[in-house]
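Structure first, sequence second, as always.
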């Protein structure tokens, strides 16, 4: 069989078709590369943001340093704990904590409560005792006197940079406060001996501070360290 010879105009048509296909391939590759680069950039930013949020979540939070209870009439058969002072500070390396958005969740054997700080109250349950206080459980302190049954109060124990005020109490590095709870008002009765109490101080961001103790079998002093 003999071969058919291409004419000059046929070779030109084939050359243009190949050029068009080549340009199309280049365009598709360019678009694919652009989409790939955009996707990689988005994922990288997303991963960075997630990592930053995770780091903040892990490092931030509040720490319960001590829990003190107050017994008005120790050494009596009817003795019970009527007040709690939960002393807290920011976790090491943690961020500032706005105490107006913090909640205390507290349970005994019969009841679970959620308590908050009322920064909108006319008479706020806030006492700045950073220069010293003779009695942490003094009823005349605003942190006790204006405390409602669903609220916690604040007694400032340490605040070098004055970041804590009654309307905007922000806990930051180096600060220490006592969160006050009127147990009798909140639970309808005080905590009796051998009672299981648990809960947490939960900030808006970060790890909560854990509350976990069993009240002593007998109350012999007015102030008792529970945790």
């Amino acid at each position: 069989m003999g071969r058919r010879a291409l004419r000059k105009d046929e070779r030109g048509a084939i050359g243009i078709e190949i050029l068009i296909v080549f340009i199309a391939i280049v365009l598709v590759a360019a678009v694919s590369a652009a989409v790939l680069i955009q996707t990689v950039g988005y994922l990288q930013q997303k991963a960075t943001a997630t990592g930053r949020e995770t780091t903040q979540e892990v490092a931030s939070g509040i720490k319960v340093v001590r829990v003190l209870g107050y017994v008005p009439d120790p050494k009596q058969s009817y003795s019970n704990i009527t007040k709690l002072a939960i002393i807290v500070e920011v976790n090491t390396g943690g961020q500032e904590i706005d105490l107006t958005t913090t909640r205390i969740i507290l349970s005994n054997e019969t009841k679970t409560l959620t308590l908050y700080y009322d920064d909108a109250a006319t008479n706020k349950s806030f006492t700045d005792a950073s220069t010293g206080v003779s009695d942490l459980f003094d009823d005349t302190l605003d942190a006790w006197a204006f405390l409602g049954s669903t609220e916690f109060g604040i007694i400032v124990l340490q605040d070098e940079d004055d970041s804590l005020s009654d309307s905007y109490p922000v806990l930051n590095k180096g600060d220490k406060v006592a969160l006050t709870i009127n147990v009798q008002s909140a639970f309808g009765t005080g905590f009796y001996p051998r009672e299981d109490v648990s809960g947490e101080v939960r900030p808006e961001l970060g790890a909560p501070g854990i509350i976990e103790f069993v009240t002593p079998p007998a109350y012999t002093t007015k102030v008792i360290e529970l945790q």
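Margin note: The radius of gyration is 33 Å.
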